Amino acid sequence: MKNYLGKMRGTAVSRAAPCWRDALWSWVGAFVGMTGVGWISAQSMQAHALLMIGSFGATSVLLYAAPESPFAQPRNVLGGSVLSALCGVVTWMLLGDNWVAAAVAVSTSILIMQLTHTLHPPGGATALIAVIGSNELHDLGWVYAFFPIGLGCLLMLTVAVLINNLARHRRYPQHWL
User: Fold this and answer.
1) pTM recorded for the entire structure
2) Among candidate residues 174, 62, 172, 64, the one with its CA nearest the CA of residue 123
3) Whole-number Å distance between alpha carbons of 134 and 104
């Protein structure tokens, strides 16, 4: 029991001073990526906010502030997001929009992402949004996985490749597959 409880203390942490250049590149990438998603949404849909899925904010953190993370690699971003969206849509179709369906969607999306090596933490939110989203989102059905999710991820990935590689010390992606 002592060993078990001792794990919860954690260890001392040593942090380097934040790099303002990295923070600025992250800001530029997130701004351009989210602006692109917003612009496409405004041009293509009457419900302009529909393309602005909440999980895209978390995807932006990974793509532009932690581009070296395994969770930020293209396979994970695109695969994890689309698979999670599909999982969420199936769950909503079978179970509706209740708390049990929400739990099933999130937990099943995690299982699917782990089994397919596409783990992307915002994918859990993408699956959840498919269950608890608005009527407009539910009306999309299967399309939700491809528009806005797939297209939005492709746009943000394109921006990540272009912006992250402008900085001399950054390299994105680390791998494609």
Assistant:
1) 0.91
2) 62
3) 18
